[in-house]
Structure formats: structure tokens, C-alpha cells
Amino acid sequence: MRIARFSLLEEHAQGRSTDPRFGIVGTNPEGQETLLAITGDPLYAGVQPTGETIPLEHVKLLAPVIPRSKVVCVGRNYLDHIKEMASDVPKEPLLFFKPNTAVIGPHEAIVWPRGSEQVEHEGELAIVIGRLCKEVPRERAKDVIFGYTIANDATARDWQKSDGQWARAKGFDTSCPVGPWIETELDTSDLEITVTVDGELRQTGRTSQMIFKIDEIVEYVSNTFTLLPGDIILTGTPSGVGLLPHGSEVSVTIEGLGTLTNKVVRNV
Fold first, then answer.
1. Sign of the four-CA dihedral 198, 202, 206, 212
2. Domain 71-266 falls in which CATH fold?
3. Any idea which fold 2-62 has?
């Protein structure tokens, strides 16, 4: 089941301030993509359809979840990416945070922060946590996962190199696009991940190449931090990271999930 968070294009165009809504992505008998509206936030209210159906072309898709707490990220989780960054292979998952203010949705702009001259893309599979949990054993990891979405761990690479830690480089506003929806039923064991910039293939890899797998990541993260409903865990990026030029368009595609596309602009 695919769950999207959205506003109506008409309301968006009019600048009307309305609460985001949620819906189940589907297809009507005529083959048109639609949203079946549901009541409230499914992370807290469950999936309760209202009966209202809206054509997908009539909505603006938003970030499918805004973490109330945190985005936890796993670094250096693909061997080829470790090699291209000339880094050491971690013995345990390497963790860092992005604040929830970094999260944006599909087709929103990744904005180069003032002072950085090297913002790069990192396409990733993201886990969405479904309930309050702590110290989850790996064999129960699926019990606390609400679903999966696509993320782009945009990184100010020059700041990452100069700062010695990653808070500024990976936590700036707009550095965490996610979307276009959450898929609640997905076999993540061997999915293709690709990233294109203006149609040029930049990154390609498969989730089977992860050093630390989904269940290991959930166990490790939850042993350190209490996880709340809506928290996101980014699982690392394959090789091929590179520059996001001003005015470019970056798309992250994950097999079985869809495509997350964002424009790139410079803060002037």
C-alpha cells in the first residue's frame, strides 16, 4: 500500500493555508492514478478511508512524513561508496543526524546554503518508523517499520571536509528531500537504486550491497535512541555521488518505490 501526504493544487495555487491530508495511491478502472483520502495521520489514526477519491493530477505531493523527532542517517554503508570517498569500512553502523527542518518533499528545491561551493547528491532508501520503540532485536525490526520511502541525503561536501563533523554539511535546510510516498509492503532485500542529474545517470547500486542490512540498522539505532512514530532512518548511498549544479534537476529512483525529483537552486 502506498500512502501519500498531499494538498490540493487549487488550494496551493490560491495560497490557502490548509492542513495536509493523507491518501492511498491507486488506479481507477479507467487507468487514472488516484488518491483515496483517509482520516487523519495514518501513523497515529491507522488507515481509515473516507470514501473520497481525488485524481493524483489534482494534488501537490508533500513530504510523506515530517519527523516530529529526528532523521537518523547511516554513513558509509556501501563498499563502492567507501572506496570513492577513500574512507575506512566501519565496524558498526556510522550514525549522524539531520534535523526535521531539513526535510522537503517532491519537486521542492534543494537550496545551496550560502558559503558552500560543493553540494552533492546521495540517493538512499529510507525507513519510516511506525511506533514508539527502544532496543528492538533485529528479528522484530519489521514490527516497528511503517514503510519505506526515497531520500536524497544532499551534502555540502566542502563543509563535510572542512568541519571534521557532519552536522552543518548534512543538516542544512532542504538537505533531506523525501517522497513521493510511503510504501508499506516492500521487499527491500535487492532493489535497484539510481540517481540522475538532468537525465545523466550518476549513481547506481542495489540494496543487496548494503554492508549493514535493514534489520541490523533498526536494532543498532534503537539500541542507542528511542524511536518515535514518523522518525526516518536513511540507510546509506551507493557510489557515484557528485555535484548538483544550480538549476539542475535530480531524480532518485528505487525499484518498487518510484522516483523522487527535486530542482536545485543557489541561495542568493
1. negative
2. Fumarylacetoacetate hydrolase; domain 2 (3.90.850)
3. SH3 type barrels. (2.30.30)
Residues of the chain with CATH 2.30.30: 2-62
CATH 3.90.850.10 positions along the chain are 71-266
Q: Model pTM greater than 0.85?
A: yes
Distance of alpha carbon 61 from alpha carbon 77, whole angstroms: 29
What the block records as the C-alpha cell of 65 is: 512524513
Give 43-61 pLDDT, tens digit per residue.
Answer: 999 999 999 999 999 999 9
User: What number of other Cβ atoms are within 10 A of residue 203's Cβ?
Assistant: 24
Q: For residue range 168-188, what is the model confidence (pLDDT) as tens digits?
A: 999 999 999 999 999 999 999
In terms of Cβ atoms closer than 10 Å to its own Cβ (0-12, 13-18, 19+), residue 204 is: middle
DSSP string, the chain: -EEEEEEEHHHHHTT-----EEEEEEE-TTS-EEEEEESS-HHHH---EEEEEEEGGGEEEE-S---SS-EEEEES-BHHHHHHTT-PPPSS-EEEEE-GGGEE-TTPEEEEPTT-S-EEE-EEEEEEE-S-BSS--GGGHHHHEEEEEEEE--EEHHHHHHHSSSHHHHHSTT-EEEEEEEESS---TT-EEEEEETTEEEEEEEGGGBSS-HHHHHHHHHHHS-B-TT-EEE----S--EE--TT-EEEEEETTTEEEEEEEEE--
C-alpha cell at position 115: 558559503
